[in-house]
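Hey,
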Amino acid sequence: MSVPVDLVETKVSYGLSKDGTQLQFFCDVTLGGQVVPETVGLEVEWLADDEVIQSETFGLLQQHKGVLKEEKWSIGQTVSLEIILNEIIRLTKLCNNEIVLKHSALITENI
């Protein structure tokens, strides 16, 4: 069996949107272990003052980072995030039945 994927580090950064009109927060993750992109998904919840203001769920083949746009938060709010890493591990038995295991990890970070 392969080594599970681990959520090693998160890095929160900020920058302008592509059109240069909005300030956005970005959440980049560093994964460890044996990463097979088609089996790994991320769930990112952005919170402002402990209330969820945006949820994102995506596979690594779709995108690599979470993005919080400016219209979702205000100056003076405490912004934080929670990330859940999901890995689907498929095991095939001799009779071709598929067993699916889900490996998850959770990390919380204040910005």
